[in-house]
Structures are given as C-alpha cells and as structure tokens.
Design goal:
heterodimer, A: 313 residues, alpha/beta, Rossmann fold, 10 helices, 7 strands, globular, B: 480 residues, 2 domains
C-alpha cells in the first residue's frame, strides 16, 4: 500500500506541475503576443461593442451571429427602412451560440430587439463552446473578449491553448511579424454599424456539398434560456435564418431546426428556404454574400421584420 | 470509450484505486473488478454490442470445457468446429458479408448478369477481429492439447475482454495471458512506473504525431491529382508515420495500462521502421497478429517443412489473410499480397529466421552505411505498400502512383512542411533509436533522475502543443 500511495502522490504531483508549467507558458505566450495580431478580423468583436458606448442609443436592433451577418447585412439600409438604430455584432460562426447570447446580454437593454441570425453549424452540439476561432479571438487577438466568456469557455480554452500557442510560436519563428494583411478580413474593414465593407460586388462561389449539421437539444435549451432572459428584461428576441448558397442548403435539417425552434416558442421571423440564394451571389464560403447578394438579403430581412412588426400591432 | 478521451483519463484512476485498495490482493475481487470495468469500457462505445461480446465469450468458454471433457476425438472435433464456425460466422457477417456480396455481383456483371446484391446496413462492432482471434486461439490451443479449459468463467471472460486490449489488441494468447489472470497480482512499483511511462509515450505518438499528421495525409491522398510529386511522397511518408504512431501508440497505452494492473501483455511493435529487410519488418510490425497467423495458419498448413512449392503457397496464404484481416477491401488484399511477394526472396534464401538482430551503432549513435541503406530501402518498400493500404480503392492507388511520376515533382510552394510536425517526428525517432534495444521509446528508467523529469515534461508539453480538439482522433485500427 505504501508503494501505491507513493505512486499516486508522485503522479499527481507531476500532473499538477505539468498543468502549471503548461498554463503559465501558454497563457503567458499569449500575453506576449497580444499586439501581434493587431489587425485581426476577430478584433471586430471589441470594436463592435465600442459602438454601443459611442451611441448610447435606445430601442436598438442588435444582430447577433457569425460572418454571414457581417457580409450579408446592410445595417444602414435597415436603419433607414425600420427607423431604429442597428448594430451588427456578426463576426464568426465558430464563436458559438453561448458567446453570442453572452454578448447580447452585456449590451441589450429594455426595449431593444435582438435578432439571432445564426449559421446552421452554431446549432450543433460541437459548437457548444465555440471552435478554435473563438479562442484565437480571446488569446491571440485581445483579452478584452474574455469578458463575454463563461466558465465553459474558460475550461475549454485549456484544450485550445496548445494549438494557439503553436501558431503564435510559428509566427514568431517564421518572422512573418503581423500575419498578411487581408483587405476583406481585417478589423478595419468593419464600418460604424459593424458591417463589412470590402467584399466584391459580384460573387463566384461554387461548392456543391450539402452542409451537414445536426441541430441539438443543447442549442434549443440555450436559446430557450436566453429567450427567458429577454422576456424578463423587456427585450425582444427574434430568430432568422442566415443566407446560404443553394448548392449547400440542407433542407431536411433546416426544416428540422425550424420546427424545433417553433416548438420551443422562439419567435422565428422567416422560413429557412426563403434565405437560399444562387451560388453566384456568394464569395469564399456558402455564407458570405457578395455586395449584390447583401442588397437582396437585406431587403428580404427588412420585409420580414416589417411583417412581424405589423402582426405585433 | 477511447484511450485519448477525458472519460478514460477519469476511468483509469478510478479502476486503479478500486483494484488495489478494495481488493487487497484477492484474486476473485481483482478479476471481478477487471471484468466489470472492461464491460463498462466496451459499453461506453455501444452497449448493444456488449451482448455479442458476452455471447462470444460464453460460446468459447462452453466449447472449451466440452472439448476438455470430451471422451473421444470426434466429439472434441465437433465442438471445435462448432466454435470455429460461429466465431468466423460472426466475423463474416459483420465484417465481410457486404464485400463478398458486392464483389460477387461485380464479378457476374462481367458475364452480362446484373444482380442487385442484398447488403446489410450494420456497423462493425469495435474490436470484433481482436476478441474473435482471442477466442479462436483459446479454442485451437485446447483442441491441440496445449492448454486445458479454464473452468472459471470470470477468469476466462477477463482473458477475452480485458479492457486495455479489448478493442485493438495486442491479440493475446491463452498460454500467455490466462496464467497471469489465474494468479493474484501483486503491486510492483517499478513496473507500474514503467507502465505510466509507456502510456505517456503512447499518448505522444497518438496525439502529437498521428493526429497531427492526419490532415496532411488526407490532403495528399484525396487531392493527389492536383499535387506535385514531392508533396504526394511526403504525404505517403507522413502516412507511414501516422499509422505506426496511431497503432503502436494504442499498443503502448494498452501495455502500459495493463502494467498498472500487474499484467504483462505481448509485444506488438519493436521499432519496425528500423528493419533491415521485409522479413524483419514483419517480426517487428503488429507482432501479435503475424505470430498468430504463423502459429495457427502457417505451421498447421505445413510451414516451411514441406516442399518448396507448398511452403511458398503457405507464405502467400498467410500474407493474403493478413491483408484480408484488416478489412473487406481489395486494397488490403493487394497490400498483403505485395508484402508476401517481397517476403518470398528472403524466404527462399532461408534468411527470414535470423534477421531480428538490432542494428548496432557504429559511429556515435549512427548505424553503418550498409545498415542505413538497408533500413532506407526496406522503408521505401514498406511505403509503396502503404499507398495501397491507405487508398479507398485500387483505382486511387494507381492514380496516386501515376501522379507521383506524371505530375511535376517540385512544388513552388511546399505546403506539406510544418515546423512542429518535423520537430515531433524527430523527437519520436530520436528516442526510438536511442532506446531501440528496449521495449518502447520512452523506456528511460536508466537515465539520470533530472533528465528523466525534463523529458517527461517536454513530452507532455509537446502533446499539449500538438493537441487539436478539432482533429479526428479515432484510432485507425478500431475499424479492423
């Protein structure tokens, strides 16, 4: 027994020391590289929240979700048509629903409308605490983003930090300095409403693979919980389906998600099939609309929101 | 449950504590704990298939006793064939039925007959090839009179389903494992520490090397048409390292885990890429399977103690079966045949028995030039085989070989280099080469204490750096 105890104590000691060494070095390296990615597209998160401080407006329409919003929504157009201040928080689909709801909770006030325009992948269980992009935003780009993190994000970050540290070291070793500046995907490309500005007018996307995703009960419980929060704080939560390229649209799963949302009493303002567009309107991915596509999708969204408004009256 | 999961990291210490603290060396309790935990381990994957495992165990346990008690040879033979047929029947249905049905339909379509084969939409139970082979070895050994039947059902069940080896081997023999299960295990500190070291090395191989290389390999095989020759060759080399690290990593974790419970499993890998010829490669690669085929197929067929023609036939049969064991695909069969053909010259020269000596360091830690060339040549031959093994079908294999030759060789922008990828590969082979006379790469018990600690922390740190939650981390050999 004495030897077994010795083994357990020694092994536990090794584990604790190793976790400490790993944590200190990886999180420390992240601090060291904090300004390394100063143009990072992900820093759009920080800048977009600054809009709230600058405007201090009421009865806002806050759009949450991923990059389909950044590419696909013309907030100024919406402001003019709906006569409400619009702030587009969309940055990346891999940030996950918990993060979006957490962001919205920080900013939304009584009288505001939160439009959850979430990419389909966000509704799957594997996006519960977001993908690596979220942790890149937290630890590569700026620690300010951590104010929207919950305990699950902190726990999950431990499993992502190795990957992130490796990328940081590689940038340093290769002496690339700041990663190549991308005119479309960079912090400065967002306008004062949070929309992206530099995508091409015409699209040229071609894929053909059906988007596989599995709407999860976890997502429904998360959005239900957020809906309750909104109700308790006089905030209106609306759900909308993102624009998606025709070749990748998975009608079976989209309909399944739609029905799950209705069953959970979420106010869904449109049907998924109405946000499906020709591939020629997309750039790079099946969610990123070109400017021409943005105009079409924004007009449709304005119509959906007006209809809801009329029904509410 | 898989080894590289949080569940296993929690499961293992709990079983370990129960096993040593609660049982206090009582054999019955030790085996009950091992059995319950093994069934739990398997049920975590899919509890429905636990019934298949239990049925297979009951079948071999019962037929084993019946064979031992049989008065005449014919009765013994009857029970023997009953067990063999049912075991192979299950394997055939779950693993090979669809292959035979579709291959038959394809074959008759060449004669103008078009039939729609009835295929089964069933999943392959994890580990079925491994636990079926455990059971077969037990039944054959009883039939041949090498062992007597195990009368204690719990002991026998632990032999079949001991969780470290349940889903991907090593394929154990009743003659080796059962006697260990029949005796109460005593805790040995040095063996347990060696076990932890081997588990750590297994995790390094799996997470830091195999999983990391997987994306490069997939790209090289799936998009070979658009890649340059050098990129495809790099992809194939990466696959050779990936499959070695994936499978031998699993074996290391299995062996290390078993050591924590005072059980020594059979060796499965002995640094196969340091082999000087193909014969030696097969004495170092998936040892438990090749020795299984040697003892239960090759020798009963007459082995080498027969005419040259029959001996060659026996060799080819064993290699073909070895390929087929991996799965119902023509690529695996061809891979087996390819190795069989490479093996034949060694066999004819009668060199295959003396080639397991470890390469000596002639200059510092380096081998002689001759040995180095032999190792590299063997590695090249093995890599050609891996192209067939990894491909989805024969057409893809041929297309990859053509792309290596036909596409431009040098890329303008080499996308298959990764600083950390190369670093971990060097780290892996550095330790494997240094410790090639030992049983695994991180067998560093003889190193100074502080150096050992430094190596542990460096290894864990590398695992952490290379770990990617997004990676598909299933062990490749789970599918076999």
């Amino acid at each position: 027994m004495k030897l077994i105890n010795q083994l357990i104590i020694k092994t536990t000691g090794y584990i604790i020391i190793t976790i400490l060494v790993i944590s200190i070095s990886t999180y420390g390296i992240s601090f060291f590289f904090e300004n390394f990615f100063s143009h990072s597209y992900f820093l759009g998160v920080i800048d977009k929240h600054e809009i709230f401080k600058k405007r201090n407006s009421r009865n806002n329409l806050i759009i949450i979700g991923g990059s389909s919003n950044a590419f696909g929504i013309d907030s100024k157009e919406m402001q003019q048509a709906l006569h409400v201040p619009v702030i587009n928080l969309g940055v990346n689909a891999a940030f996950g629903a918990q993060f979006y709801f957490s962001e919205a909770k920080k900013e939304a006030k009584s009288g505001d409308i939160v439009l959850a325009n979430l990419e389909y992948e966000t509704t799957t269980d594997s996006f519960r605490y977001g993908g690596i992009q979220l942790y890149q935003m937290f630890f590569e780009s700026h620690f300010k983003g951590l104010c929207y993190a919950n305990i699950g994000h902190y726990y999950n970050s431990f499993f992502q930090m190795g990957n992130i540290t490796r990328r940081n070291i590689l940038y340093y070793i290769n002496k690339k300095g700041v990663p190549d500046f991308n005119p479309t995907y960079n912090r400065e490309a967002f306008d004062e409403n949070g929309d992206l500005q530099n995508q091409p007018f015409k699209g040229k996307y071609k894929n053909g693979h059906i988007n596989l995703f599995y709407p999860s009960d976890y997502f429904i419980s998360t959005i239900t919980e957020f809906n309750e929060y909104c109700k308790n704080n006089n905030i209106k939560l609306l759900y909308s389906f993102p624009p998606i390229a025709k070749s990748t649209y998975n009608s079976k799963k989209a309909t399944e998600l739609y029905n799950m949302l209705l069953k959970a009493n979420i106010a869904v303002i449109n049907k998924p099939e109405n946000s499906v567009y020709n591939d020629s309107l997309f750039v790079v991915t099946y969610y990123h609309l070109c400017k021409e596509g943005r105009y079409i999708y924004t007009s449709k969204l304005i119509g959906d929101l007006k209809l809801i408004n009329r029904k509410a009256r | 449950m898989v080894f590289n999961s949080i569940n296993f990291v929690l499961f293992l210490p709990v079983v370990f504590l129960f096993y040593w603290y609660v049982t206090k060396g009582n054999l019955k309790f030790q085996n009950i704990i091992l059995l319950v935990s093994s069934y739990f381990f398997y049920a975590c994957w899919d509890w429905r298939f636990l019934f298949l495992l239990i049925f297979s165990t009951l079948l071999d346990y019962y037929t084993g006793i019946k064979m031992s008690d049989a008065k005449g040879h014919s009765v013994k033979k009857k029970w023997f064939w009953l067990s063999i047929s049912i075991n192979l029947g299950f394997l055939g249905i779950f693993k090979y039925y669809n292959f035979f049905a579709t291959s038959f339909a394809e074959a008759v379509s060449n004669f103008g007959l078009h039939i729609n084969p009835y295929t089964l939409s069933i999943i392959l139970p994890v580990g079925i090839s491994f636990y079926t082979f455990h059971g077969l070895s037990y039944v054959i050994d009883i039939y041949k009179g090498r062992i007597t039947a195990e009368k204690n059902f719990i002991n026998y069940s632990v032999f079949v389903s001991f969780f470290p080896l349940l889903v991907a081997g090593p394929i154990e023999r009743a003659t080796h494992l059962l006697p260990q299960i029949q005796q109460p295990r005593k805790f040995n500190y040095d063996i347990a520490v060696s076990g932890i070291r081997q588990i750590l090395w297994g995790f390094f191989k799996k997470i830091a090397v195999a999983d990391f290389l997987a994306s490069f390999v997939e790209k090289a095989f799936e998009k070979h048409m658009s890649l340059k020759g050098m990129e495809i060759i790099t992809g194939v080399i990466y696959f050779s390292i990936q499959i070695y690290c994936d499978f031998s990593g699993y074996s290391d974790i299995a062996k290390g885990t078993a050591k924590l419970f005072g059980i020594e499993l059979l060796d499965n890998f002995r640094f196969p890429y340091f082999s000087k010829n193909i014969s030696e490669f097969w004495r170092r690669w998936h040892i438990s399977l090749s020795s299984w085929f040697r003892d239960y197929i090759y020798i009963p067929l007459g082995g080498s103690k027969t005419s040259n023609f029959l001996a060659l036939r026996n060799v080819l049969i064993v290699f073909l079966l070895s390929g087929f064991w991996h799965g119902a695909k023509w690529t695996y069969i061809f891979w087996g045949l390819y190795h069989g053909i490479l093996f034949l010259p060694m066999f004819l020269k009668k060199k295959q028995k003396n080639d397991i000596d470890i390469v000596k360091n002639t200059f510092f830690v380096f081998p002689s030039f001759k040995n180095f060339c032999q190792i590299m040549f063997t590695y090249l031959l093995v890599n050609i085989g891996w192209i067939f093994f990894r491909s989805d079908n024969m057409r893809q294999s041929i297309s990859i070989l053509q792309s290596i030759v036909k596409n431009n060789f040098l890329p303008t922008n080499f996308r298959f280099f990764d600083f950390f990828g190369v670093l971990v590969i060097l780290y892996l082979f550095f330790f494997e080469w240094l410790n090639k006379e030992k049983s695994f790469g991180l067998d560093i018990a003889s190193y100074p204490k502080y150096l050992r600690r430094f190596i542990y922390i460096t290894t864990i740190f590398l695992i952490y750096l290379m770990y990617s939650p997004q990676a598909n981390s299933t062990f490749i050999y789970f599918q076999f």
